[in-house]
């Protein structure tokens, strides 16, 4: 039997998916392999077919008991001799599997990683021919992955304990280069065949929207899709409650799902959705694991998730049936801070401090990539494929950005300011620094770090004093995206590339595409080089000041505008005063109000400054 016959005979498929065949060939020739494919991309065939064609018993290491059981029962139905060993079995059942395995009864044996260290399992494996060891969910070996499992670290010892080293195949759906390097290093893969496939989902339409009023925009989207089934993901349980209520009040057949509901309600709501009694599911990310509803025709993210991995997994629940489906993400600058807060509050308390700090760095890098997706003006599909390392063609022509028209705005001057600031700071300090410090210098913020490092004396200090932070950030992100700056993966510092020289010294012009006429009145970005810039989305500080104003007004039982007007708060957020004298510079702050409320506002600003430095 060859691989094509095995494919047809055992699995009933007539052709391989892109990437599967090359991976199978590598394993059949005895080479190690690393396959990066999304969930549902067809990883299992890649090791099952070699297992069926190679003599001996293939060992599959998998952390998920239920998945293991499903796979084994499916394989058995297909006539494959397979079994599993995990803690769900009784000692008797385990004994039986060992006996049969020793007698050479199995082509595939699935085990949980904990089993590898046991004496009995090692003894079994020393007596059997093992041509291949497949490691599923291989990112679990990396501390930088989201699901680090210490038991995975035993795998390399296990491999070393075998009389003859088998080919090793590692599979993951995780993208980051660090995690992939960890997998190669910790599993000691030897010159592995490497492939990234299956991430493209041509039937999905991607779009990012920045609605002023999310509920209204959501409702309009749902009304356009009446009768169709879809999921609305929200960041928190409270949001789920509110959005679901709003939709029900508006006559949409919506239901909800989050971890705060009773088991029975979750089950009932899930069924209502599954059976199309309710067409819209409003949920947190707790919803979806193990859901296999194929006719989901849209997934709308009411809030930005914390990583592109999470986003793509959630959005990818649309269009499983191959029909055209929409993946729409609502974004505002505030989502970034919410996501940061959620990250801060997470974290595995069992990890040592230093590791935790690095994990946090990784989380921030993932968030950064997610934010980049929301801000890019390039093809959204290609942004995703780039992130997951899959090669692709030109712009897809079938995403929100490809369909929108952009105008090219000259940003040569801005680029020069940014690049020379990065270089000046490096000259002064002897090392590169991160984006937020560069922003502080450019915008002339007098933060503690700027002061300590003496950066306010640089000629580039305050060059972008009049520019709002989100706009300046957008330019920096664009320079990174276009390869004029790079983010050092180790320290998250911004560094100029070779290409920067052309813009700085050789008169190269640089333009940036800016969305020109959005269908819905989205962000109005005006990027005349020195004119007033974007009506920025309300910043974090502004939001904090508004919250403080609300508390003060409530305590005094007066309307909020009596404390300070919005315009005053906006100016205050912009100037971020440190002292009472600075505060009096803010338009709308007189001495009476400064005396009455000044201390509270200065304190809030100081607290905010502490958070963002
Ligand atoms: P993963 O392990 O990557 O999550 P699976 O191996 O479970 O994904 O495959 C997902 C689905 O794709 C399964 O239903 C499987 O039958 C199907 N599939 C895999 N390879 C092929 C193929 N070559 N042709 C058709 N369907 C395939
Ligand atoms: Zn596109």
From TrEMBL:
<keyword id="KW-0233">DNA recombination</keyword>
<dbReference type="InterPro" id="IPR032284">
    <property type="entry name" value="RecQ_Zn-bd"/>
</dbReference>
<dbReference type="GO" id="GO:0030894">
    <property type="term" value="C:replisome"/>
</dbReference>
<keyword id="KW-0227">DNA damage</keyword>
<dbReference type="InterPro" id="IPR027417">
    <property type="entry name" value="P-loop_NTPase"/>
</dbReference>
<dbReference type="InterPro" id="IPR004589">
    <property type="entry name" value="DNA_helicase_ATP-dep_RecQ"/>
</dbReference>
<dbReference type="InterPro" id="IPR001650">
    <property type="entry name" value="Helicase_C-like"/>
</dbReference>
<dbReference type="InterPro" id="IPR006293">
    <property type="entry name" value="DNA_helicase_ATP-dep_RecQ_bac"/>
</dbReference>
<keyword id="KW-0238">DNA-binding</keyword>
<dbReference type="GO" id="GO:0046872">
    <property type="term" value="F:metal ion binding"/>
</dbReference>
<keyword id="KW-0479">Metal-binding</keyword>
<dbReference type="GO" id="GO:0006260">
    <property type="term" value="P:DNA replication"/>
</dbReference>
<keyword id="KW-0067">ATP-binding</keyword>
<dbReference type="GO" id="GO:0005524">
    <property type="term" value="F:ATP binding"/>
</dbReference>
<feature type="domain" description="Helicase C-terminal">
    <location>
        <begin position="214"/>
        <end position="365"/>
    </location>
</feature>
<dbReference type="InterPro" id="IPR036390">
    <property type="entry name" value="WH_DNA-bd_sf"/>
</dbReference>
<dbReference type="GO" id="GO:0009432">
    <property type="term" value="P:SOS response"/>
</dbReference>
<dbReference type="GO" id="GO:0005737">
    <property type="term" value="C:cytoplasm"/>
</dbReference>
<dbReference type="GO" id="GO:0003677">
    <property type="term" value="F:DNA binding"/>
</dbReference>
<dbReference type="Pfam" id="PF00270">
    <property type="entry name" value="DEAD"/>
</dbReference>
<feature type="domain" description="HRDC">
    <location>
        <begin position="535"/>
        <end position="613"/>
    </location>
</feature>
<dbReference type="GO" id="GO:0043138">
    <property type="term" value="F:3'-5' DNA helicase activity"/>
</dbReference>
<dbReference type="InterPro" id="IPR014001">
    <property type="entry name" value="Helicase_ATP-bd"/>
</dbReference>
<dbReference type="InterPro" id="IPR036388">
    <property type="entry name" value="WH-like_DNA-bd_sf"/>
</dbReference>
<keyword id="KW-0547">Nucleotide-binding</keyword>
<keyword id="KW-0378">Hydrolase</keyword>
<dbReference type="GO" id="GO:0006310">
    <property type="term" value="P:DNA recombination"/>
</dbReference>
<dbReference type="InterPro" id="IPR018982">
    <property type="entry name" value="RQC_domain"/>
</dbReference>
<keyword id="KW-0862">Zinc</keyword>
<dbReference type="GO" id="GO:0006281">
    <property type="term" value="P:DNA repair"/>
</dbReference>
<dbReference type="InterPro" id="IPR010997">
    <property type="entry name" value="HRDC-like_sf"/>
</dbReference>
<comment type="similarity">
    <text>Belongs to the helicase family. RecQ subfamily.</text>
</comment>
<dbReference type="GO" id="GO:0016787">
    <property type="term" value="F:hydrolase activity"/>
</dbReference>
<dbReference type="Pfam" id="PF00570">
    <property type="entry name" value="HRDC"/>
</dbReference>
<dbReference type="GO" id="GO:0009378">
    <property type="term" value="F:four-way junction helicase activity"/>
</dbReference>
<dbReference type="InterPro" id="IPR002121">
    <property type="entry name" value="HRDC_dom"/>
</dbReference>
<dbReference type="InterPro" id="IPR044876">
    <property type="entry name" value="HRDC_dom_sf"/>
</dbReference>
<feature type="domain" description="Helicase ATP-binding">
    <location>
        <begin position="24"/>
        <end position="193"/>
    </location>
</feature>
<protein>
    <recommendedName>
        <fullName>DNA helicase RecQ</fullName>
        <ecNumber>5.6.2.4</ecNumber>
    </recommendedName>
</protein>
<keyword id="KW-0347">Helicase</keyword>
<keyword id="KW-0413">Isomerase</keyword>
<dbReference type="GO" id="GO:0043590">
    <property type="term" value="C:bacterial nucleoid"/>
</dbReference>
């Amino acid at each position: 039997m060859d691989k094509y016959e095995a494919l047809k005979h055992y699995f009933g498929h007539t052709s391989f998916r892109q990437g599967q065949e090359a991976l199978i060939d590598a394993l059949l020739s005895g080479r190690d392999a690393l396959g990066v494919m999304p969930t549902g991309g067809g990883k299992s065939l890649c090791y099952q077919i070699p297992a069926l064609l190679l003599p001996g018993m293939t060992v599959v290491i998998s952390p998920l008991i239920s998945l293991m059981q499903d796979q084994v029962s499916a394989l058995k139905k297909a006539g494959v001799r397979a079994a599993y060993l995990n803690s769900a079995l009784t000692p008797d059942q385990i004994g039986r599997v060992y006996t049969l395995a020793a007698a050479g009864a199995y082509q595939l044996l699935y085990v949980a990683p904990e089993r590898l260290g046991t004496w009995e399992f090692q003894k079994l494996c020393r007596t059997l021919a093992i041509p291949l060891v497949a490691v599923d969910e291989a990112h679990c070996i990396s501390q930088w992955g989201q699901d680090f499992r210490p038991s995975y670290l035993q795998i390399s010892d296990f491999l070393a304990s075998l009389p003859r080293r088998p080919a090793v195949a590692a599979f993951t759906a995780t993208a980051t280069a660090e995690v992939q390097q960890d997998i190669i290093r910790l599993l000691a893969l030897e010159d592995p065949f490497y492939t990234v496939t299956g991430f493209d989902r041509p039937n999905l339409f991607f779009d990012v929207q920045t609605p002023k009023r999310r509920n209204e925009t959501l409702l309009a989207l749902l009304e356009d899709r009446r009768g169709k089934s879809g999921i609305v993901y929200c960041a928190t349980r409270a949001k789920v409650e509110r959005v679901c209520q709003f939709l029900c009040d508006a006559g949409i057949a919506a239901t909800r799902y989050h971890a705060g509901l009773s088991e029975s309600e979750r089950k009932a709501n899930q069924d209502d959705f599954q059976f199309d009694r309710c067409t819209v599911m409003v949920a947190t990310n707790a919803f979806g694991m193990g859901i296999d509803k194929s006719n989901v025709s849209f997934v709308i993210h009411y809030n930005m998730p914390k990583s592109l991995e999470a986003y793509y997994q959630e959005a990818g629940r649309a269009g499983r049936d191959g029909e055209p489906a929409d993946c729409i993400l609502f974004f505002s600058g505030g989502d970034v801070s919410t996501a940061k807060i959620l990250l801060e509050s997470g974290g595995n308390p069992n990890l040592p401090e230093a590791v935790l700090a690095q994990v946090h760095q990784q989380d921030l890098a993932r968030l950064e990539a997610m934010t980049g997706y929301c801000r890019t003006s390039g093809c959204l599909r290609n942004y995703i494929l780039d992130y997951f390392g899959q090669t692709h063609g030109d712009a897809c022509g079938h995403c929100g950005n490809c369909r929108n028209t952009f105008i090219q705005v000259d940003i040569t001057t801005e680029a020069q300011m940014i690049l020379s600031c990065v270089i000046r700071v490096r000259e002064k300090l002897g090392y590169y620094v991160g984006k937020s410090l560069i922003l502080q210098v450019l915008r002339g913020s007098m933060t503690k770090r700027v002061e300590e490092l003496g950066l306010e004396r640089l000629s580039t200090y305050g060059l972008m004093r009049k520019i709002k932070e989100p706009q300046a950030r957008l330019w920096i992100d664009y320079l990174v995206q276009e390869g004029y700056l790079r983010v050092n993966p180790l320290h998250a510092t911004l560094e100029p590339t070779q290409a920067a020289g052309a813009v700085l010294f050789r008169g190269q012009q640089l333009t940036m595409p800016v969305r020109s006429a959005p269908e819905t009145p989205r962000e109005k970005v005006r990027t005349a080089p020195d004119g007033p810039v974007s009506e920025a989305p309300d910043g974090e500080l502004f939001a904090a000041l508004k919250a403080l104003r609300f508390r003060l007004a409530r305590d005094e039982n007066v309307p909020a505008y009596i404390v300070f007007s919005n315009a005053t708060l906006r100016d205050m957020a912009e100037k971020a005063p440190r002292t009472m004298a600075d505060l009096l510079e803010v338009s709308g702050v007189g001495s009476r109000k400064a005396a009455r409320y000044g201390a509270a506002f200065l304190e809030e600003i100081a607290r905010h400054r502490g958070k963002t430095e």
